Every structure is written in C-alpha cells, then in structure tokens.
Write the structure tokens for this entry.
Amino acid sequence: MSLLSGDGKFLGVEWNTWKVIGWLGNVAFFSRFFVQWYASEKQKRVVVPVAFWWLSLVGSILLLLYALFYRRDSVFIFAYAFTWIPYIRNLVIHSNSAAEELKCRACGAPSAVTARYCASCGVPIDTGKSGGAS
Ligand SMILES: [Zn+2]
C-alpha cells in the first residue's frame, strides 16, 4: 500500500481500533449532510430523509464511544452525550407517521392520511373510509 508509510502511519495518522471507530463516526456524521442535501434537491423542497437520522444516530454513538473510551475528554463527551435522544425520537416519530401514510392508487406516491389529493399526481386519495365530507 503506497499510502502506508514505513512508520505504520496511514495518511499520516497512527491507526488503532478506536481511531477507526472515531473515523467511521465522522464519516457517518459528515455524510448525513449530503444525504439531506441530495434529498432536498431531488424533491425541490427542504426535506429530512430518515437516513439522515440513522446516520446521525450511528455517527453520534460512534463518536461518543470514541470520546468516552479513547479521548476521555469531558468537552468531547458532552458534545455527543445527549444528541442521540432527539435522533431516536425523530426515528420513532418517522416510523409512526410512515405507518399512517397512504399510497396513491394512480402513481404509488405516499400521502398523509389527512390528504385528500395526491401531492404527486393530483388524483383524489381513496382513504378507504366510508362516508366523509364531500
Ligand atoms: Zn398520485
């Protein structure tokens, strides 16, 4: 490996298991911004895809482990000590709302249960519920 120098450093960094865990956390944490940006560009509005919360959760847990067991730095530990709480809460909210989504008969796009028309193709949403206001 040409990037591996004679002193055992890779890319100028001395590697060990904790360094790998810390860097995996960095990669997960950093990539979530691009995942979110890509999703927003694709939908032409600001959206936060569920992958953003998963990457946030995985990244923050890996960085917390790194901070707790390798760096033992109170500033670093505090930075990641509580961030997993909103990430998990957002994942729970997402899974609850996903269960309540309806799929459009015409195009298959998901719609909220409260929607009357498909946001994607405009076809009236068949809620499957009898009655209802006209
Ligand atoms: Zn549709």
